[in-house]
Amino acid sequence: MNVVELFERSVTRSGAGFDQTFRHRYRTSTEGLWAALTTEDRIARWLGPVAERSADGRTLVINIGSGDALAPARVAVRRCTPPTDLAVDWEWQGRPASLVTAALRPVDQDHVELTLRHHAVASEPLVVGYGGGWEWCLLALGSEAGAERWTADRLDDHERAAHEAWRRVLEGDG
């Protein structure tokens, strides 16, 4: 399968910018994918290590990237209904907070579908950038959940292809 076809992508314009949706199926259980999404040590393996955590555990600072490209993201939990629904305020690289939601839906006994929505993305270039970046992370999430196997080189190749796919979505050709 062409790596670009691994995701169902859509974007809609909203008053605050763009709402971007990613949909991907994983060969794992809902509980397994939920644990990979929400357990601190497992988050470190697909998104980045948790650098700070509030006393109540509802706000995290996650270091995304590595070396000189390290960029902390502040994540504040708005809603958490295990094992299917998560909503967080997302702050990254000095941009205003936006809402990111994740919904898990069992497809059958061996597969679960994740729908991730990033709301209020401020511009088309950010839709393209977040598109490739989120897809890189979501495929790495699949590896962490034991659902898929991705090398760093394959993830990087997919991210570049995903940027182009998101450009086509914005042009109405995706």
TrEMBL record:
| Every Activator of Hsp90 ATPase homologue 1/2-like C-terminal domain range | 28-140
Q: Which Pfam families match?
A: AHSA1
Q: Which family does it belong to?
A: Belongs to the AHA1 family.
Q: What is this protein called?
A: Uncharacterized protein YndB with AHSA1/START domain
Q: Which organism is it from?
A: Microlunatus parietis
